[in-house]
Amino acid sequence: MTIQKVKGLLSRLLRVPVSDLLLAYESPKMPGREIELENDQQSLQFYSVENGDCLLVRW
Hints:
The chain is an alpha+beta fold and 59 residues long.
């Protein structure tokens, strides 16, 4: 799934414009390190997001 599709789902769920959403994730493998998901065309797999990781949503 692309970052753009995730943002679209979150936009509908949270009723926030897609342009206002900022996504990042944290992995238990790298505690305290936040990785920004900045390229909307890339997939979650590109960023190595795995089960157990925490998706961070800001607006």
